[in-house]
Amino acid sequence: MSLGWGWHRIRGLFGGVHWIPFRQHCSPLLKNFALVAEYDAIPYHDHRIEKHPHGRDKKSSFNFGIKYRLWDIFDFSVGQVRGSKLAFSASANYNFGTTKGFFPKINNPIPYQAPQNIEPLGDRRPEMAMIQDLIYPFDEQGFDLIKMSISPDCYGQTTLRIHVENRVYRTQCEVRTRLNHLLSHLSPTNIDHIIVVIEAEGLPLQEYHFAVRFLHDFAAKEIATPELNVLSPLCDVSFSSPACSRVIFEKPRDLFNIELFPKMHTFFGSSSGKFKYLYGLNIAFDGYLLGDVYYTVLLGYAFASNLGDIKDMDRLNPSQLINVRTDVIRYYQQKGITLDQAYLQKNWNMGRGWFSRVSTGLFEEAYGGIASEVLFYPVCSPFAIGIEGAVLKKRSYHGVGFTNKIRKLKGFVPTYKRFLGKQYFANLHYDCKPLNMDFHVKWGKFLANDWGTRFEVTRYFDSGLQVSFWYTRTSAKDYINGSRYQDRGVAVSMPLDILYTHSDRKRWGYGLSAWLRDIGVFAFTGDSLFRTIRESRQD
Question: Which InterPro entries does its entry note (predicted)?
Fold first, then answer.
């Protein structure tokens, strides 16, 4: 039962009741049957409340009906509304927050068990044999082995350093489980310590420190997983002296990869149609140049679109700021093959939790330029702080060139002014693990020369689902229907492996602002350091 008090549209007391008479019945067919009723306090007859003449009929303030849930997925309901109409609805629900996927992960390999080889390095097991022992099991478990080096220390102990990239797993728990089993069954007995450095996009993120004697105790079942995890801490990346270490294996990163995925843009509420869309295909070419300089080239082609009749300004409330985003429809109306992205990015781990990046090129359909970022994000810290900035030029509506002008409306009349985009921000991130929520604050200068703060809250779930809400408050004065507007919106990010029979790190995301405006706008400038690191530190 619920009760409330309302004003404006809802006048006075309102409430509802939901009764499940057979909740404790042994029959599963009867347990999900419910009776529902509500008292509707909205005075529909008042012309100031209900503007539409066909919406003012009301014979009764009491609505009632029945509801039934089938297999805990499908909901059916039928009821009487306003004393005069009979309503029926059917819906389906699925808990994406707790799901382990539509299909079991039957194609995931089990944690490594055999063959076991802990022979010491020497004549019977030379270094090349150990490398072969590690490469193929690591690959089968979902890791790319990038580099291996051996370094003795001043105390006569030997450390094996292994750089790997996680291709498959979304959580640190799964990564650690796989590493525990791999190393406990394949580590030479005359290696004292093993350091496994986890990398992503050419960036060393963090490292696990293993003592080989504890690994062998784990393989012999003398200690359990929780004990080994405590004895093998996760640390910030350290750097061994090149003079004291010897590289025994190094594999060039992939020079060329190709990937296909859908291209989609949607708009709601246009005067020429409530739903506008563009559906097509993106083809991405990416890889690494000069060792660890990441590049990507993204081509697009639209197969179906009804964006042709949309104008690039609001007919009732045209933005009076420089049009840094409201003209984006012009880019989506291009015909044929489009060059959506083409940029280079270089990432660095500077040690002690400090990271940096530099990127340059065509970052998105509308902007290209040069950008940089510095982030402090130590291992096991819930906080991260950073700064970022970019100098950007606006791309032409067709082709791959740039323009040095941008449109600014005076009322409905377009004028043009010289433009060189600049954006720079100070960022604060906080991971509140008890609430499973991330909080983000971005303060600085946005593209339309407005200063302000963007607040974002992200709720993450066990399944990998993330739901985000943001609100931006800036110095720009943008008005919609006489009221000052501040940008706000919602976004969803879903792991794609809920559809697969194996684990995968790829995600699908979708975001939507309340209005397409120029306030609080910033351009994409390459892969964010925080997002790259955060995805590899997800518990």
Answer: YbjH (IPR010344)
What distances in angstroms separate CA 287 from CA 94, 147, 297, 303, one per listed residue? 37, 17, 10, 27
CATH number of 127-250: 3.30.300
125-181 confidence digits (pLDDT tens): 999 999 999 999 999 999 999 999 998 875 678 999 999 999 999 999 999 999 999
Spatial separation of the C-alpha atoms in residues 458 and 492, rounded to whole Å: 9
Mode of pairing for the β-strands spanning 158-166 and 193-200: parallel
Q: E-assigned strands of 201-250? A: 203-211, 234-235, 246-250
Q: What amino acid is encoded at 140 in this protein?
A: E
CA distance 498 to 94: 12
pTM: 0.86
Both tokens of 410, joined, read 């005076």
Question: Which two three-digit tokens encode residue 322?
Answer: 């420089």
User: What angle do the packed helices 127-140 and 172-186 form, to 10 degrees?
Assistant: 150
CB within 8 Å of 159: residues ≥ 6 apart:
150, 151, 152, 153, 191, 192, 193, 194, 195, 240
- Return the CATH number of the domain spanning residue range 257-536: 2.40.160
Ranges for all domains in the chain classified under CATH 3.30.300? 127-250
Start-end of CATH 2.40.160 domains in the chain = 257-536
Nearest to 16 by CA among 67, 51, 55: 67
Separation CA 239–CA 225 (nearest Å): 28
For 425-440, what is each residue's pLDDT tens digit?
999 999 999 999 999 9
* Pair of tokens at residue 458: 């992200």
